[in-house]
UniProtKB/TrEMBL annotation:
Residue span(s) of domain Protein FecR C-terminal: 310-378
Species lineage: Bacteria, Pseudomonadati, Bacteroidota, Bacteroidia, Bacteroidales
Transmembrane segments: 80-100
Short name of any one Pfam family annotated for the protein: FecR_C
Name of the protein this chain belongs to: DUF4974 domain-containing protein
Coiled-coil intervals: none
Record domain FecR protein: where: 172-267
Biological source species: Odoribacter splanchnicus
Domain of life the protein comes from: Bacteria
Length: 381
């Protein structure tokens, strides 16, 4: 029988059969410890890919030192986890007598430090009033249209369900570039809103459906209510759910609308075409051709931002730069056009500075970055 570390290694290497991969993805979604181990392995893969060849004995010693931080975080099972992660990485890389050793950091030229985004948003009321959501609201408030809003430090704003005879107003939470925000809708559903995104919603849900309007990227954890389906309108697309968790990406610059299902079931509809998703599946709408397809995906690649992580698996550098541009509120120019589609695999924290993220990318791609003000120039090393 395979150990969990062998499962992680085989999954990362792409050697699992589709039924095996499904079993592993289910376990990844439902077992918190397996998910943490998997994240640790991905982090160590990134470290190893930024290193040069050395003997396996030297590399093993270096790897054990690198793992010490993980051991300290979970002392009770530190030896099992550390040994297992190391074994999984070795299996993943197919290591015989070689591993890797550190090299010098490639040039990332910066005239100043660009810090990561923060929790911030603007609440737009029906009468046009704008309220800054910057964590300063600590008590419940009654806004100008009579809606009562409670601030919860763990889940952002929380709308109180209103009496049935109250007037329904529409509010919008708008998150700028360099921001993110989390809150609860009146029905208890949780929403995470990424940079350059917004959600328009009623102060009280009425009628047969619970309808909201989204743009950009949002993650929904929907309160189950079989009699009142939850509907997300995104331009000409429509996502219908009962009780589920899913990620929706509608950024216009991506030229795709991606709906990624974490659990439950959703139906994605665009025009006359529709697909019903199962957990681990993604609906892909090509905005240019209007073609609608589905595919099996590693859900964590599309939802890691909710947990404060950037996770990439052979993602083109141009796609990564668009994502970083929204989070760090920057612009970018490819001086070396050949790197536009260059794939990158790695994992990083969203609270790192921009030059730290770019430094990691530079180590494995042969790309150099020059940061001037709020613009990043991408060149060949």
């Amino acid at each position: 029988m395979k150990t969990i570390y062998e499962w992680i290694a085989d999954y990362s290497a792409g050697t699992l059969t589709e039924p095996e991969a499904k079993v592993f993805r289910d376990r990844l979604e439902n077992d918190g410890e397996v998910k943490r181990l998997f994240t640790d392995v991905r982090q160590m893969e990134t470290v190893l890919k930024m290193l040069e060849v050395e003997t396996s004995a030297e590399a093993w010693e270096r790897l054990q030192k690198a793992l010490s931080g993980m051991r300290n975080r979970r002392r009770r099972i530190r030896r099992t986890i550390a040994a297992g992660i190391a074994a999984a990485i070795v299996l993943f890389l197919g290591v015989g007598v070689i591993l890797w050793r550190p090299i010098g950091l490639p040039p990332v030229v910066a005239t100043g430090e660009i810090t990561p985004g923060t929790t911030k948003a603007t609440l737009l009321l029906a009468d046009g009033e704008a309220i800054a959501l910057d964590g300063l609201l600590t008590d419940s408030i009654t806004v100008s249209d009579g809606t009562v809003i409670v601030h919860d430090t763990l889940s952002g704003l929380q709308y109180r369900q209103q009496e049935e005879d109250t007037v329904v107003h529409y509010h919008t939470i708008r998150v700028p570039r360099g921001g993110e925000y989390r809150f609860r809708l009146p029905d208890g559903s949780q929403v995470w809103i990424n940079s350059a995104s917004e959600l328009r919603f009623p102060t009280r849900f009425t009628g047969r459906e619970r309808v909201v309007y989204a743009s950009g990227e949002l993650y929904f954890d929907v309160q189950a209510d079989a009699e009142h389906p939850f509907v997300v309108e995104a331009g000409d697309s429509r996502v219908t759910v009962l009780g589920t968790a899913f990620n929706l990406n509608t950024y216009p610059e991506e030229q795709q609308v991606l709906t990624t299902l974490v659990r439950g079931a959703v139906e994605f509809q665009h025009g006359n075409a529709s697909v019903r998703l199962k957990p681990g599946q993604q609906a892909v709408l090509d905005v240019r051709t209007q073609q609608l397809d589905t595919r099996q995906v590693d859900v964590s690649l599309y939802t890691s931002w909710v947990n404060g992580i950037f996770e990439y698996e052979r993602m083109p550098l141009a796609d990564i730069m668009r994502q970083l541009a929204r989070w760090y509120d920057i612009g970018f120019i490819f001086e070396a056009a050949e790197f536009h589609d260059h794939p990158f695999t790695g994992i990083a924290r969203r609270d790192q500075t921009l030059d730290e993220i770019l430094g990691m990318i530079a180590k494995t791609t042969g790309v150099a970055f020059e940061i001037s003000g709020k613009t990043v120039l991408i060149k060949k090393q």
